[in-house]
């Protein structure tokens, strides 16, 4: 019970990696709030949290609206009195108008040898698509962080875990430059904020995952032909993608007392993807 009675918010905690973290926190005794835009999925996670014997709460919110984010934090404080842990997990990958950024094409592309010509993605990207990525992955993360700091600085304690991506620290996602840039911003923000607030007892760190086995991700993998799939797995020296539990365990470590000496760090569970490059 490494997080007993801690109050945690996991943005985008209704599916995928966010859900994995929310359930791992609940197993460690935390009271867990999940937010997102899909009510049925939020309710399902709260049920799973409660089935683990923990307290759960869901909030339907679009975190790109800073006023709604403010209201969400008020609701959390009203129900639980405080907030100890913020996981800035919500994020988007897609930027529609290049036509290559749905999950399946994205994975196919990283297995394709780099052509002797430009992929032509950046020069064809619209203002709208560039900005949309930043609105969720960067601006909304800032709105949530700002509200959390109001609470955490007052009590002199807090843990903030930002979810970036391997794309923010390597060029592997050449097919989604706006995604990579947004995650690079999350990495830089983590380091700067980590420095800013460490003296106030707040540890800010970042997890920058490689490929992790969420349902959505596995749908992309499973739609590949066997040859492409094998080529994809060879990108990792481990020859496999990561398990959600392996990834969530890192978040538990950072959120717990065990992680108190971790400040401004960027940790990348990626099966060796980057060292192999
Ligand atoms: P999913 O696409 O499965 O889930 C994204 C989550 O973000 C959903 O819960 C979604 O909720 C929420 N979200 C998106 N936009 C908003 C918004 N405007 N307001 C509120 N919530 C929002 O992602 P994953 O679980 O795969 O990834 C989670 C994080 O991990 C992301 O930041 C991603 O970039 C990062 N990551 C994931 C990797 C992987 O292998 N899966 C690899 C590298 C990084 P809803 O739809 O209900 O709004």
From TrEMBL:
<dbReference type="GO" id="GO:0032787">
    <property type="term" value="P:monocarboxylic acid metabolic process"/>
</dbReference>
<keyword id="KW-0753">Steroid metabolism</keyword>
<dbReference type="InterPro" id="IPR020904">
    <property type="entry name" value="Sc_DH/Rdtase_CS"/>
</dbReference>
<keyword id="KW-0560">Oxidoreductase</keyword>
<protein>
    <submittedName>
        <fullName>SDR family NAD(P)-dependent oxidoreductase</fullName>
    </submittedName>
</protein>
<dbReference type="InterPro" id="IPR036291">
    <property type="entry name" value="NAD(P)-bd_dom_sf"/>
</dbReference>
<keyword id="KW-0443">Lipid metabolism</keyword>
<dbReference type="GO" id="GO:0008202">
    <property type="term" value="P:steroid metabolic process"/>
</dbReference>
<dbReference type="InterPro" id="IPR050259">
    <property type="entry name" value="SDR"/>
</dbReference>
<dbReference type="InterPro" id="IPR002347">
    <property type="entry name" value="SDR_fam"/>
</dbReference>
<dbReference type="Pfam" id="PF00106">
    <property type="entry name" value="adh_short"/>
</dbReference>
<dbReference type="GO" id="GO:0016491">
    <property type="term" value="F:oxidoreductase activity"/>
</dbReference>
<comment type="similarity">
    <text>Belongs to the short-chain dehydrogenases/reductases (SDR) family.</text>
</comment>
């Amino acid at each position: 019970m490494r997080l007993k009675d801690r109050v945690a918010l996991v943005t985008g905690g209704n599916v995928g990696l966010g859900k994995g973290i929310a359930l791992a926190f609940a197993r460690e005794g935390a009271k867990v709030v999940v937010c997102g835009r899909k009510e049925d999925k939020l309710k399902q996670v709260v049920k799973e949290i409660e089935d683990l014997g923990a307290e759960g709460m869901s909030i339907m919110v679009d975190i790109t609206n800073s006023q709604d984010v403010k209201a969400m934090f008020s609701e959390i404080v009203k129900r639980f009195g405080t907030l100890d842990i913020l996981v800035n997990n919500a994020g988007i990958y897609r930027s529609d108008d290049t036509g290559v950024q749905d999950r399946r094409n994205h994975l196919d592309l990283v297995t394709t040898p780099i052509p002797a010509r430009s992929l032509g993605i950046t020069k064809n990207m619209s203002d709208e698509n560039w900005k949309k990525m930043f609105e969720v992955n960067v601006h909304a993360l800032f709105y949530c962080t700002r509200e959390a700091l109001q609470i955490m600085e007052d009590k002199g304690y807090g843990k903030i875990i930002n979810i970036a991506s391997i794309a923010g620290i390597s060029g592997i996602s050449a097919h989604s430059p706006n995604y990579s840039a947004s995650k690079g911003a999350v990495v830089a923000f983590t380091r700067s904020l980590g420095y800013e607030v460490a003296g106030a007892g707040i540890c800010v760190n970042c997890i920058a995952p490689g490929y992790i086995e969420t349902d959505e991700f596995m749908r992309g993998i499973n739609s590949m032909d066997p040859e492409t799939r094998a080529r994809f797995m060879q990108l990792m020296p481990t020859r496999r993608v990561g398990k959600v539990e392996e990834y969530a365990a890192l978040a538990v470590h950072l959120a717990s007392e065990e992680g108190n000496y971790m400040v401004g760090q960027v940790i990348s569970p990626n099966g060796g993807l980057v060292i192999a490059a």
